Amino acid sequence: MGYRIVVAGATGSVGREMVNILAEREFPADEIAVLASSRSQGEQMEYGDTGRMLTVKNIEHFDPAGWDMALFAIGSEATKLHAPRFAEAGCVVIDNSSLYRMDPDVPLIVPEVNPEAIEGYRAKNIIANPNCSTAQMVVALKPLHDFARIKRVVVATYQSVSGAGKQGMDELFEQSRNIFVGDPATPTKFTKQIAFNVIPHIDVFLDDGSTKEEWKMVVETKKIMGAKIKVTATCVRVPVFVGHCEAINIEFEDEISAKDAQRILREAPGVMLYDKREDGGYITPVECVGEFATYISRVREDSTVENGLSLWCVSDNLRKGAALNAVQIAELLGRRQLQKAA
C-alpha cells in the first residue's frame, strides 16, 4: 500500500526536483498532488520520465485532509500560513524553508546523520529540512565524528546561484551575456555583479558581522549532530549555476589520519569518495549535477593543529541540499513511523 503525497511549490526549482526525485526513486505513492500559487493553477507537469502528467492545483484551495505527507518548497512566509493547516489535518509536513529549523519541537533531519530524531515529528506533525550548505557538510562530518569526535570545524562555502532560486540563475545568465556583448551587468537579485565575480555575502548581516547563512550552518550543525562542535563559516556566492562546494577544515579530539578518513568516508552512507592525488582527481560542481551523492575529495592532514584534517565537499544543492533530502525524509517517515501507526 502506498501513500498520498503532496508537493507544494511544485513549479519552482526545488519543487520540480522533488517531483522528479519521487519518480526516479519510485516512491510508493498511490496519489500525488502538485500545488503552487494561483498563477500556476492548471499547468501540466510530467511526473519524472514516466509520461504521467500532473495538473497543478492552487494551494489556497487545497484540502489536506486524508493526505499522508506534504513536501513544502514555498518559502517561509507561505509556509507560516499553510504548514499548520496541513499538520492539523493529519498530513505530515516536510518543510524546506528555514521557518521551523530551530524550533525545539520540530526535528531537523538528514537521514544519513540523525534518522532517530524523526521520532519527534508528532509534537507538531512537522519535520524540517536543513539549509543546503549544512546538509552536505554534516553528511561528511558524521562518520568522521563517530570515529574521532570533532572539536571544531572551519568551513568556507562556494555556493551556486541556484541557491537563490530562479532569479539568481537568470541574473548570472543575463549578466554573463551582457558582459560578452558590452552591455552593463547591473545587479538586481544580488548585492554586486555575480558574473565573473564572487560575493562573500548570503542572506542578511547579523550584529556580530556574520551573515544569517553562516549562522544557520553553525546552529543547524549543532542541532543535527547533537554535539558540542564549534563551527565557524564563511559563505560565498560564486558564478556557478548548480552545485555547492565547501572547503572544510576539521579539528578532532582523537587521532585520525587521512587514510583513516578515506577508509571511513568510502563506506559512509550518502558519500562518494573520489580522491586521487593527481590532475583532475577531484570532483567539481559540473560532475555533481543531477547526482544523489555528496562527493568528497582532497582529504589531507592539517599539520598546523593536533588531529586535524582538511577536505573538499561537493553536492548538487537542488538535490541533497533540498529536494533529495526531503524525499529521503519522506522515505524514512514511511518506513519508521507511518507504518507503525497503521
Description:
With 342 residues, this protein is of the alpha/beta class. The chain has 2 domains: 147 residues, 3-Layer(aba) Sandwich (Rossmann fold); 185 residues, Dihydrodipicolinate Reductase, domain 2 (2-Layer Sandwich). A 7-stranded mixed sheet has the order 3-4-2-1-5-6-7, with helices on both faces. A hairpin with a 6-residue loop joins strand 3 and strand 4. Helix 1 crosses helix 8, helix 3 packs across helix 5 and helix 3 packs across helix 8. It starts with a strand and ends with a helix. The mean pLDDT is 96.
CATH class term of the largest domain? Alpha Beta
Choose one word for the global shape. globular
- The helicity comes to 25-40%
Individual helix count: 8
Strand content is 15-25%
Largest pleated sheet: 7 strands, mixed
The strand count comes to 13
